[in-house]
Amino acid sequence: MNRTIDHLRTNDKWRRCVAILCLSIIGIVGVCSETAMGQQRARLTIKSPLKDSTVIIDTPVYFRGIADPAGTLSVNGVDVPVYSTGVFAAPLHLQLGINELQVCHVMGTDTLRKRLVLVYEKPEPPQPTVGFAIEYARILPAGDLWLQPGDLLQVEMKATPGMEATFYNNTPLFEVDTAAAGVAGIYRGEYILKPSDSLTGLPVSFYLRDKATQKTVTVESRQRITVLNQPHVLTGLTATGHAPLFYGLGSDRLGGAKMGHLDSLVKLEVTGKMGDMYRVRLSGQAQAYIPVSSLRLQEGVHFRPYSLTGSWSITSDSTYDFVRIGLGERLPYTHVVQQHPTRIVVDVYGAVSNSNWITQKEGLRAISNVWYEQVSKDVFRVFIELKEKQLWGYHVGYEKNMLVIRVKPQPDRLDLRGLTIAVDAGHGGSNRGASGMTGVLEKELNLSMALKLKAALEAAGSMVIMTRTRDQSVANSYRLQRFRQSEADLLISIHCNSSRNPMVQGVSTYYRHQAYRPLSQHILAEMRKLGLADFGNVGGFNFTLNAPTELPNVLVEVGFLSNPADEERLLDPAFQDEVAGRIVDGVKGFLDSIP
After folding, report:
1. Most distant CA pair in the chain: distance in Å?
2. pTM for this one?
3. Contact present, 198 and 225 (Cβ < 8 Å)
4. Disulfide: which of 287, 407, 476, 541 matches 366 by Cβ 3.0-4.6 Å?
């Protein structure tokens, strides 16, 4: 071991690594213990750090694994809790340089010792480009671009510092301050595209010049640019019945922030393309992005989306209220819910008012009043004021060229008895979800808790619709379609959370639409009575099953499978029964809170 440490101290190659783990086992006594079946299991298994030599990106490092819970575990004399499942986790806060750790697991008179040596060094900062060269040159954002005259072409290049740099049409590139860029030699520039620019699927050239030696080096971007300078607008029709509109090009593991969804055959004006997203014009002041796969470009010459509005009718059947507005073609729209008072607000882009009467029939159950405003020359705003404070669901779409807003009234009885509740057991089949240190899979726990919730809701008199009742793969698109067709009153999706940090724990509830927040708040309040930590009530959440506007919905992340304490409780059938009971109480509290 000492030779190894000396080697790490002197070998420059190893010192460039962020961290190296060296492990030796000293004086192992009673490495294995007997299980109830007479089989042997490891008395102590360290799962993190995992290898004898491993690179650790950052601190803290987490000491995780499974130990016989009959013993006691410590690191450098500090006790590490071992739960009844055998799982343990603790942060290892490393200092720069060599960190020696003594791990001890004691069972009676037997002591198992392991010595860990971790060497931690911060990664070297980025280095300037070596020699006279261009290291990279790229266009922002990533991907091939379609742009219009007047758009900014933005570029970045990393190259030898202190040089003269240019790109398309001899446009200068300026070196960014080293403190801001983190390294010398980052060049950036912008160019406003002109009608005379005729790029059609072409790369952009970048030039670096050394004024002292008169040397020049040139590279071309991998991305290609097309300038949309055709004499007419470019239009497309949505190819699906649930085409997503995005605010921008940002993304995360759940996808980018969505503005909403559009019905099929909605006409959009395309003003650009960035990678796999079209940029579309909604109005003179608003734009959005839509996946290339969701829009079919129209051939030939088409006018931009436009229509006069016609007469309105507001009617009701035994299930829904309907607002119908006549249009000449299917125009894009967005919608939100305002509160105090509760109103559905729909913006129709490209529409100009020619509505001279609005006929409201008797017998409306959900709608109190409707009206409109022409808020700009190409934005027609529809207001639908509701009778009740709590929204119970709505849908916006087209019947031929008629824009139809369907509004669900409040149930006659605000009681679990008689309500239809959709229960979703997250993941399933090949989609395993997260996994615990014990090896338990999230999909199994989700299903177990969902079935217990089903039983508890049915005992309270509710009708329950399940996405799955066994271990099977179910696409989120199918789950969404099933719930929309089921006419359920509420949707509850059950999941277990996970984090790279095993110390993070707690219960959380998630909603996307502000009108459906109260349901998530009441369920979280009840779940907290189980003694779970509060991970929070999370709004604007971009989860598929939080997206429907057709019914109040909530995602419940019961606890963190990555946390030993939460995992221990999640594995307990009695705790799962309590979870089901608390969710039912949360739904009852939500119903009782409605005036």
Report:
1. 92
2. 0.90
3. no
4. 407
Look up residue 348 and give its two tokens. 């129709």
CA gap 335, 57 in Å, rounded: 44
Cβ burial 441-466 (10 Å sphere, 16+ → b, else e): bbbbbbbbbbbbbbebbeebebebbb
Tokens linked to 342: 């509760």
SS3 labels along 456-513: HHHHCCCEEEECCCCCCCCCHHHHHHHHHHHCCCEEEEEEEECCCCCCCCCEEEECCC
Is the separation of the CB atoms in 538 and 508 below 8 Å?
A: yes
> Strand locations in 240-286, DSSP E?
243-246, 258-262, 267-274, 277-281
76: left (phi over 0), alpha (psi -120 to 50) or beta: left
Residue 538 pairs in a beta bridge with 510
Lowest mean pLDDT among 11-15, 97-101, 283-287, 390-394: 11-15
Measured CA to CA, the distance from residue 307 to residue 401 in angstroms comes to 10
| Sign of CA pseudo-dihedral 81, 82, 88, 92 | positive
Assess contact for 280 and 271: CB atoms under 8 A: yes
Query: What is the 8-class DSSP label of residue 387?
Result: S
The pair phi, psi for residue 228, each rounded to 5°, is: -85, 85
- Give the C-alpha distances (Å, rounded to integers) separating 493 from 377, 436, 488: 42, 20, 13
pLDDT tens readout for residues 71-97: 999 999 999 999 999 999 999 988 888
